[in-house]
Amino acid sequence: RELGKNSDNFYAETLLKALGGFTHDARASTRDGADAVTQWLHELGALEPGFRMTNGSGLFDANRVSALTLATVLRHAYQSPRIGADFVAELAVGGVDGTLRSRFRDRSTDRTVRAKTGTLDQVVALSGYVLAPPAESPVAFSFIVDGVTGKHADARDRIDKSVEAIAATLWKR
Question: Once rounded to an integer, what is the mean pLDDT over residues 121-135?
């Protein structure tokens, strides 16, 4: 919950280190965790040229990941019977909680936008799902806007409008 809904970077760092310890049968380290993620992305077919992970929180601009990689991971997570439902439940709900409490308020009743935010000095990101009506498929999305100067509000607004357009198409409203 703290990682997905509230975007707590300490939890992200700790989770990556724990993953490193688990997969390498050794003392938990960031490098081993990053290696495990890289290997998993390769196995998933989501590892793109230029990918680089140096920490778990993404707070430093040394990390490099594409929107396609993130959307592929989201699609895989959603389809996984082992983690899908729990993973989606840990994401912030648009207009309801976490880092999306004040965004997507028109979607708060149907709770269809589930996502994780990301912000750096010149980067704004949002990745997640627009859940669909029964018998329809949800849409996994990832938006990363780089080179944002000044305030992030305009970039966030454009991302939010894109997500709203996806939701309007799925829900016919």
Answer: 95
